[in-house]
Amino acid sequence: MKGNQKIIEALNELLAGELSAMDQYFIHSRMYDDWGFKKLFDRIDHEFEDEKLHASKLIERILFLEGTPDMATRVPLNIGKDVPAMLQSDLDLEYKVIEDLRNVMALCEQERDYQTRDMLQVLLEDTEHDHTHWLEQQLGLIDRVGLQNYLQSQMG
Questions:
Q1: Heme: is it a keyword of this entry (predicted)?
Q2: 3 and 108 in contact (C-beta within 8 Å)?
Q3: Neighbours of 128 (CB within 10 A)
Q4: CA 98 to CA 53: how far, in whole Å?
Q5: Contact, 45 vs 29, CB < 8 A?
Q6: What is the SS3 assignment for 82?
Q7: What's the CA angle centered on 149, arms 83 and 139, to 5 degrees?
């Protein structure tokens, strides 16, 4: 099905964000593993897999619309140097993804591509209710129980 070029381009921009998030989660998960934070490794490795699924959904939709997925473009990564910075960096990235998803969903509405909008709604719900909420929770825990107590709880 020949798709709208503006939507294909917007989907490729979303893809760049998902691929970057995937890269950042991959690096952060391996850093957590190296530092002995098993629980953080498990969760962030799971997030890496989720981002891979999001990227896959975007690729499938771009291909369905007879576009070419751009696998080379990335947004800049922000690799943290310690656990709070890593969590905040990941949260900032998720906030950007939420904003970008909402903007592309609005474009889909304008261009009357309701199937793409519906697919993006699922990604938005996952990003808001799973990824973002969990990261906000972790930073809140650090504030409430202190960094050392939080880190100890993540050694698992």
A1: yes
A2: no
A3: 16
A4: 16
A5: yes
A6: coil
A7: 45
Which amino acid is present at 17?
G
Structure tokens at 26: 């991959």
Token match 């989660």: residue? 25
Regarding the domain with residue range 5-153, which homologous superfamily does it belong to in the CATH classification?
Ferritin, core subunit, four-helix bundle (1.20.1260.10)
Give the model confidence (pLDDT) of 30-71 as tens digits.
Answer: 999 999 999 999 999 999 999 999 999 999 999 999 999 999
Say how far apart CA 142 and CA 152 lie, in whole Å: 11
Angle at 26 between CA 123 and CA 34, to 5 degrees: 145
- Residue 115 one-letter amino acid: Q
Q: Is the pTM of this model over 0.90?
A: yes
Integer angstrom CA distances of residue 122 from 67, 126, 129 = 21, 6, 11
